[in-house]
Amino acid sequence: MEEAMKRLDAEWLELILMAKRMGLTIEEIREFLTRETVQRKAQ
Predict the structure, then answer these.
(1) Which of 1, 13, 14, 20 has the highest Cβ tally under 10 A?
(2) Single pTM value for the model
């Protein structure tokens, strides 16, 4: 389980870094994740 969490953390880190390289701000990333979470819960 711990190894899976490390892999997941590494994947999230890579996604965040990719978004930053694309020019997104941390706030834009946060807003996107929040919006997606709300939309998925509404389904």
Answers:
(1) 20
(2) 0.66
